[in-house]
Amino acid sequence: MAEGKLTRAFVTPEGVDLRLELGEAGQRAGAFLLDAAIIIGVLVAATLLLGLLGIGAIGAMGRGGAEMMAVIWLLGFFLLRNFYFVGFELSAAAATPGKRAMGLRVAARDGGRLRPAAIFARNAMRELEVFLPLSILPAPQGDGGVESWAILLGFIWAGIFVFFPLFNADRLRVGDLVGGTWVVRTPKQSLVRDMADDGAERLARYDFTQAQIDAYGAKELHVLEDVLRQRDRKTMRAVAARIARKIDWTHGAIDDDHDFLSAYYAALRKRLEARLLMGVRRRDKHDV
């Protein structure tokens, strides 16, 4: 598959060279606006609730009560906007509701596991990129307030970071550069039931133990599905060899890589679906 303008090689830990399509600037902006709308909606609801609960306290404490409520509001807004992005991107989907609506997700640029440190780093930078410069805009101007030049500087500062992805080939935010991440497109695809059924017919030839099946998780299942879709002989040979080493396969040589991978795909999918029914979700092979 030829690499397009926004298509990049992505080598997984299993040695599979996939092709990922980067999210376009318009898609990322749309995702951010959707997320911002959700955050504002939650903030408005929380503000109304806080106002109702705090009316008595403000009346009793006077100006001190009003200042305390303002501090609580600012702290709540800070926690909301940060934990919203971090929390959703740490989930199995690696995407906020806005990103999911636009068919996007966050991925590690080195092809490895998306680690919490990378998520925290990329989102911490958003404070410097957007929220910090924009926070001075509502402040009063002149005579103890914010000067007009400072507000203009805030606009310029925010504009530089907002448009930064347009001026690099990988459409990276500064937060992506710091965290070692990028945002890729994930078109919605349902797993093909025929593929699982086809593999189930081959399970009789292989006797996978539960420990061998539990060597991988949902992420590797999707990678294996991509391998089976592509049906590239060299790739299937390499992946079959890696899986055999990983699960310590000692039941003889693998005569047909496609049969072996199809059978393992069916066994792994059946196992993950059974665990999911019990409320256990295994994201990848590192998830215990």
Provide a short characterization of the protein structure.
This protein is mostly helical and 288 residues long. The protein contains eleven helices and four strands; from the N terminus they run ββαααβαααβααααα.
Q: How would you portray this structure in words?
A:
Keywords: Membrane, Transmembrane, Transmembrane helix. Pfam families: RDD (PF06271). The chain crosses the membrane at residues 36-58, 70-95, 148-167. This is RDD domain-containing protein. By secondary structure, this protein is mostly helical. Helices cover 59% and strands 7% of the residues. Strands 1-2 form a two-stranded antiparallel sheet. Helix 1 packs antiparallel against helix 2 and helix 2 (63-89) crosses helix 4. The radius of gyration is 25 Å and the shape is elongated.
How many distinct domains? 2
Mean pLDDT: 75
The tally of helices reads 11
Would you list the SSEs in sequence order as H and E?
Answer: EEHHHEHHHEHHHHH
Shape: elongated
Question: In which order are the strands of the major sheet placed?
Answer: 1-2
Structural class: mainly alpha
Radius of gyration: 25 Å
Overall strand count: 4
Extract low-pLDDT stretches.
188-192, 277-282
Percent strand: 5-15%
Helix content: 55-70%
What's the main sheet like? 2 strands, antiparallel
Q: N- to C-terminal separation? A: 35 Å
Main location: membrane
Membrane topology: Multi-pass membrane protein
Pfam families: RDD (PF06271)
Keywords: Membrane, Transmembrane, Transmembrane helix
